[in-house]
């Protein structure tokens, strides 16, 4: 009896030992195959110590877009840029740059030109198809800690991405939270830019013609001569040889600025010739054709209509600076501050006159007084024009300003469009009585 009980106890111990071993093995197996912590918020963030899966744009990580009034000014490098739209195309990654680009120099600001464009367009936007870190030294920039690249495969190295399109850009498929987007545009706002309303939450830094943009971008301007001319500037084409009064080249009819209305009224009081689609006379097409006409104009005409197509804050184009390079007195219509944007006493601003009739009276006065007329060319002794801004230094200097480099996204659309007021001519009509 005792032997049977001993055998039963031994058998029971063996069974318990086998069960215990099996349970430990299963527990260890489950622990070894345990999935990383998974958090799902209308999308999925999958994390472990070495890998971060892409996170869709719309997630609770972006909630700081609407909770930004807490008075906390501390910068959060892992914060998702404000108001990123959920278009299903761009995924936001929170992986630090030190992980995705461990060899990158943290003191260097890497700028990736994302938009595809040709060499000619690079010149148009102020770059000379030169890339790398040393280019900023060659251009004698104040700040040289920038690196310009044009290789999309190096997206993970870029602190800043530049977009040049005036249409919705082709956005990258991923975006790191420490990256900022720069939008560059030369043209004034119009209906064709309505796409910005939806995509402005992506854009951190503005770069355009306005003086209050984050980075001011301009191709034309003037500065003092290093060595002024020894003698006052003497006009090559005397006033007495110019038999015609006013000329302009306009091919965009019905512009927002209502310049056509002003030209029509001005024509009632002084002779005005309009070349292009909006007039009755033609110039050869292309840059060479324009130059041929301008060469002829300065010999025949006294004044040139440098009329912008819109009244937008700080918006002034080559229409002005091209005219200034000839012996023609520009008559300007626009919302620029011409006392700042043009050489001293070099232009005639229509806003200084109550009506086109009053302007015509002043133009006739100048036409009879050669010294007064030639005084509009006196600036040429002291100043010189330029037409190719060096964007390398402009960009690098701006990105070394913390207020620019760390700017949050949002507000671009309303800021840009609010700068235009195309009812100026209508108010001039009411005030001057030429309705």
From TrEMBL:
<comment type="similarity">
    <text>Belongs to the glycosyltransferase 10 family.</text>
</comment>
<feature type="compositionally biased region" description="Acidic residues">
    <location>
        <begin position="66"/>
        <end position="78"/>
    </location>
</feature>
<keyword id="KW-0808">Transferase</keyword>
<dbReference type="GO" id="GO:0008417">
    <property type="term" value="F:fucosyltransferase activity"/>
</dbReference>
<dbReference type="InterPro" id="IPR031481">
    <property type="entry name" value="Glyco_tran_10_N"/>
</dbReference>
<dbReference type="Pfam" id="PF17039">
    <property type="entry name" value="Glyco_tran_10_N"/>
</dbReference>
<feature type="domain" description="Fucosyltransferase N-terminal">
    <location>
        <begin position="108"/>
        <end position="216"/>
    </location>
</feature>
<feature type="domain" description="Fucosyltransferase C-terminal">
    <location>
        <begin position="240"/>
        <end position="407"/>
    </location>
</feature>
<protein>
    <recommendedName>
        <fullName>Fucosyltransferase</fullName>
        <ecNumber>2.4.1.-</ecNumber>
    </recommendedName>
</protein>
<keyword id="KW-0325">Glycoprotein</keyword>
<keyword id="KW-0735">Signal-anchor</keyword>
<comment type="pathway">
    <text>Protein modification; protein glycosylation.</text>
</comment>
<keyword id="KW-1133">Transmembrane helix</keyword>
<keyword id="KW-0812">Transmembrane</keyword>
<dbReference type="GO" id="GO:0000139">
    <property type="term" value="C:Golgi membrane"/>
</dbReference>
<dbReference type="GO" id="GO:0032580">
    <property type="term" value="C:Golgi cisterna membrane"/>
</dbReference>
<feature type="signal peptide">
    <location>
        <begin position="1"/>
        <end position="27"/>
    </location>
</feature>
<dbReference type="InterPro" id="IPR055270">
    <property type="entry name" value="Glyco_tran_10_C"/>
</dbReference>
<feature type="region of interest" description="Disordered">
    <location>
        <begin position="25"/>
        <end position="97"/>
    </location>
</feature>
<dbReference type="InterPro" id="IPR001503">
    <property type="entry name" value="Glyco_trans_10"/>
</dbReference>
<dbReference type="InterPro" id="IPR038577">
    <property type="entry name" value="GT10-like_C_sf"/>
</dbReference>
<keyword id="KW-0732">Signal</keyword>
<keyword id="KW-0328">Glycosyltransferase</keyword>
<feature type="compositionally biased region" description="Basic and acidic residues">
    <location>
        <begin position="28"/>
        <end position="52"/>
    </location>
</feature>
<keyword id="KW-0472">Membrane</keyword>
<keyword id="KW-0333">Golgi apparatus</keyword>
<dbReference type="Pfam" id="PF00852">
    <property type="entry name" value="Glyco_transf_10"/>
</dbReference>
<feature type="compositionally biased region" description="Basic and acidic residues">
    <location>
        <begin position="79"/>
        <end position="90"/>
    </location>
</feature>
């Amino acid at each position: 009896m005792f032997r049977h009980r001993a055998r039963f106890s031994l058998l029971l111990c063996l069974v318990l030992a086998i069960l215990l071993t099996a349970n430990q093995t299963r527990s260890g197996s489950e622990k070894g195959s345990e999935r990383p912590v998974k958090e799902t918020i209308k999308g999925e963030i999958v994390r472990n110590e070495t890998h971060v899966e892409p996170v869709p744009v719309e997630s609770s990580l972006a909630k700081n877009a609407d909770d930004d009034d807490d008075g906390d000014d501390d910068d959060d490098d892992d914060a998702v840029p404000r108001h990123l739209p959920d278009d299903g195309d761009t995924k936001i990654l929170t992986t630090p740059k030190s992980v995705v680009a461990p060899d990158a120099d943290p003191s260097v600001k890497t700028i990736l030109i994302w938009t595809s464009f040709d060499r000619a367009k690079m010149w148009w936007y102020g770059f000379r198809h030169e890339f790398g870190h040393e280019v900023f030294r060659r251009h004698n920039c104040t700040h040289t800690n920038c690196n310009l690249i044009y290789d999309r495969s190096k997206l993970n190295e870029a602190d800043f991405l530049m977009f040049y399109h005036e249409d919705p850009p082709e956005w990258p498929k991923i975006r790191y939270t420490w990256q900022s987007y720069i939008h560059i545009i030369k043209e004034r706002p119009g209906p064709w830019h309505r796409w910005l309303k939806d995509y402005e939450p992506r854009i951190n830094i503005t770069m355009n013609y306005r003086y209050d943009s984050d980075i001011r971008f301009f191709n034309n301007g003037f500065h003092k001569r290093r060595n002024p001319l020894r003698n006052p500037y003497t006009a090559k084409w005397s006033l007495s040889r110019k038999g015609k009064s006013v000329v302009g080249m306009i091919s965009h009819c019905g512009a927002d600025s209502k310049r056509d209305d002003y030209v029509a009224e001005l024509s009632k009081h002084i002779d005005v010739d309009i070349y292009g689609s909006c007039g009755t006379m033609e110039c050869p097409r292309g840059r060479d054709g324009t130059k041929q006409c301008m060469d002829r104009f300065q010999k025949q005409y006294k004044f040139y209509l440098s009329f912008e197509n819109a009244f937008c804050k700080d918006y002034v184009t080559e229409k002005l600076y091209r005219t200034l390079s000839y012996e023609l007195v520009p008559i300007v219509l626009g919302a620029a501050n011409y006392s700042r944007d043009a050489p001293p006493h070099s232009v005639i601003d229509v806003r200084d006159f109550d009506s086109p009739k009053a302007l015509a009276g002043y133009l006739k006065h100048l036409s009879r007084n050669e010294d007064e007329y030639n005084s509009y060319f006196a600036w040429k002794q002291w100043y010189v024009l330029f037409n190719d801004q060096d964007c390398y230094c402009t960009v690098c200097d701006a990105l070394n300003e913390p207020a620019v480099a760390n700017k949050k996204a949002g507000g671009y659309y309303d800021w840009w469009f609010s700068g235009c007021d195309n009812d100026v001519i209508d108010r001039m009509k009411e005030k001057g009585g030429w309705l």
